[in-house]
Write a structure and sequence with these properties.
three-stranded parallel β-sheet, 2 domains, Oxidized Rhodanese, domain 1
Length: about 375
């Protein structure tokens, strides 16, 4: 007989397969990594049942639900649930609170000869567990922030560390005005869930100190959890340095060559134009801060570089606007930020020195 699960930590630590029976609109607002949405009801069906519940009560709503999900529709959904259960015998199903919807799916599966367990408390209980996990880590763990000028390769440093907390990776965004990826960002809830699961797994592996990149309150459209962001204003700071020309090359790689490749891989023949539009839009986003004259000058350089890249594939001309943007905008801003945080800086060095320092660093 299938045993229902309330050990939420084991579900996430072991990446156990889960089938989410909530409606698509609920799933889109927030879900867990790798989970498959196989709903009991569509969005419109759920809305009708919800209206019925408010007007006529629970029993009438249940009866309506059974009428809506019956016959061929029921057979099709049951076949999808059974296929998931057969493919993932170690998995679980759940709904929002572990109540009626998941119980109905579980019972219909059982009637079809498939005994499949569900998560007690459902999505809400697992979400609460992850929020508690994140808050506990902020209270109990040691954190150090990695800062540095734009293009110094902070993300590259994090990739060398076993105790990194990659906010930009979880947000699928590079953190700056130009940081938007071709593939879009997760929802706020998905971002928080990914972050909490990362912390859970690393703490389970014995890690009690984490390194995270110096970020603003918002990474693209994702908000850094308040408690963590407040801590980031006080945590010790390690400052990464690199030569100006190396920074230009790294930005050229990440924000031009690689980003263009992302767009082409995602959109095919229209990918380059989508990339070019995104690059120009990113510059437009900081137009007010740049000022009209400087914005127009850098935009002209960017458009000339895009024209050449479109014509020949060469990216060399992009260095002109990158250099201008660094010297005239980003570097003065980051220099000011560094001065304001000077008393928190405990180490300064190049990439190799910073990696070695952080690997050897002991919790404070």
């Amino acid at each position: 007989m299938a045993v229902n699960c309330s050990d939420y930590a084991s579900l996430f630590l072991n990446d156990l397969p889960m089938m989410d029976t909530r409606a698509p609109v609920e799933f889109t607002k927030g879900a867990f990594p790798g989970v498959v949405n196989l709903p009991l009801m569509t969005d419109s069906e759920r809305q009708r049942v919800g209206t019925c519940y408010k007007q006529q009560g629970q029993q009438a709503a249940i009866e309506l639900g059974h009428r809506l999900v019956s016959g061929v529709i029921k057979e099709q959904r049951l076949a999808a649930w059974a296929a998931f259960a057969e493919a993932h015998p170690e998995g679980y199903l759940y709904c929002f609170r572990g109540g009626l919807r998941s119980q109905i799916v579980q019972q219909w599966l059982k009637d079809a000869g498939v005994d499949y367990p569900r998560v007690t408390g459902g999505y809400k209980a697992m979400r609460t567990f992850l929020i508690d996990t994140l808050q506990a880590a902020v209270r109990e763990c040691d954190f150090v922030v990695l800062g540095g000028m734009t293009g110094t390769g902070k993300t590259d440093v994090l990739a060398h560390l076993p105790n990194d907390l990659d906010l930009e990776g979880h947000a699928n965004h590079r953190g700056s005005s130009f940081g938007k990826r071709a593939s879009g960002q997760p929802s706020q809830i998905d971002f928080e869930n990914r972050l909490a699961i990362d912390l859970l797994k690393k703490r389970h592996a014995g890690i009690g100190q984490f390194v995270l990149e110096d970020e603003g309150r918002i990474v693209g459209s994702c908000n850094v959890p308040l408690e963590l962001h407040q801590g980031m204003q006080q945590y010790p700071l390690v400052w990464l340095e690199d030569r100006f020309d190396s920074r230009v090359e790294r930005i050229l790689r990440d924000y031009v060559t690689n980003l263009c490749a992302e767009f082409v891989a995602l959109h095919g023949e229209t990918g380059f134009e989508a990339f070019a539009q995104r690059l120009c839009q990113s510059l437009d986003n900081i137009r007010k801060r740049l000022g009209g004259e400087r914005h127009q000058r850098l935009l002209a350089l960017m458009q000339a570089a895009l024209d050449e890249q479109r014509r020949s594939g060469a990216v060399d001309l992009h260095r002109a606007w990158i250099e201008g943007l660094l010297r005239e905008y980003y570097d003065p801003m980051y220099a000011y930020q560094r001065d304001s945080k000077a008393e928190r800086i405990e180490f300064v060095g190049d990439q190799q020195a910073v990696v070695e320092y952080l690997l050897a660093r002991r919790p404070q």
